[in-house]
Amino acid sequence: MAKQKATLRTIAEASGFAVTTVSRALKDAPELSQATKARIRTIALAQGYAPDRAALRLRTGQTYILAFILSQEDEINRIARNMIIGLSQGLRGTPYQLIVVPQFPDEDPLQAVRYVVETGAADGLIISHTMPQDERVRYLLERDIPFVTHGRTELQTPHAYYDYDNFRFALEATRLLLRRGRQRIILVPPITRFTYAGLQIDGYRRAMIEAGLEPNVATALSIESSPMELKRFASSMAREAAPPDAYVCGSEEACIALIGGIEASGMRLGCQVDLVGKQTSDLVDVLSAVFDTASEDFSHTGRILAELLLRRLAGESAGDLQRLETPIWTLRTPASER
After folding, report:
1. How does 86-103 read in b/e, with b if 16+ C-beta sit within 10 Å?
2. Fewer CB within 10 A of the terminal residue: the chain, N end or C end?
3. What residues have CB less than 8 Å from 163, skipping those under 6 apart?
4. Is 60 exceeded by the pLDDT of residue 9?
5. What CATH number does domain 65-164+298-325 carry, 2.60.40.3450, 3.40.50.2300, 3.40.50.1010, 1.10.1740.10?
6. Is 3.40.50.2300 the CATH classification of the domain at 166-297+329-337?
7. Pairing status of strand 328-330 against strand 292-295
8. Where is the HTH lacI-type domain (predicted)?
């Protein structure tokens, strides 16, 4: 015998609540108690209930779908995975589902966003890898589409965003190395077209100029260069007549590649050369090489992005939905060497 399809009515019969109450509970209605919503969701899950998206859209004009525009520029596997986990956690218990729409480096950046908007595939969007004059953001602002960005822009119209304070990261990282007596400090930057790259470079330059030193940004490569390129770079720089005595690098993977080049040159991290970077996993904690890091949690990022987008969909002003995360430091270098 075929299993009966789960509907609002079958859930109502099993739970003892009215169909309208069941419907409101599955939409996370704030006027209902958490206990009521939890009971109804448990029964809905047990029955295998899934809303009819087509009917829902016809009835409400909403899809209850949110689209994450997934840039494939960098560190795609782990960082993207953690952001998707965080977004999913942030949407848990709400009527919204997450879809992932890829944005390829060789395509028009607007293509993925246009697809979502023009097909009505989602009620809101999450965008990463913002640029100062981001055409995707401008496009969504002009059409009044709810969205949130991971990263800021320089556009005049306010929009919802969550960002890591990369200016402060580079400023504090460079000052930390300066206090340690380092002077020939190189910044390995992000890809320069992104907003956060300019912020890192500005923070690094400010600290160097304040100290009366010449900034040295490694313009021939970026944190997205291959591990072998980064290793060769650090190894070749060690053979210079006046080799760098420190690096600032905003990527965990790039830091590890630089360490490979430093060690291959015969130099010791923490002796002839220092490194300050970012930590985005527990990988740094198991390395024998010791360096100071600022943490950036991409699961947390995903949860906050989900929260901000839900609030935007609920009608809150975009200007009130802007969050900047302050770097939190883990100093592993012995205090006598700082």
Report:
1. bbbebbeeebbebeebeb
2. N
3. 150, 151, 152, 196, 323, 324, 325
4. yes
5. 3.40.50.2300
6. yes
7. antiparallel
8. 6-60
Q: Residues of the chain with pLDDT > 70: what percent? A: 93
pLDDT band at 69 (very low <50, low <70, confident <90, very high): very high
Write down the pTM of the prediction. 0.83
Under DSSP, the state recorded for 74 is S
Amino acid at 147: F
Question: Model confidence over 82-120: pLDDT tens digits?
Answer: 999 999 999 998 889 999 998 888 889 899 999 999 999
33 burial level (CB within 10 Å; 0-12, 13-18, 19+): exposed
Q: How far apart are CA 218 and CA 71, in angstroms?
A: 24
Strand ranges (E), 64-175: 65-71, 97-103, 124-128, 147-150, 161-164
Domain boundaries, the chain: 8-50, 65-164+298-325, 166-297+329-337
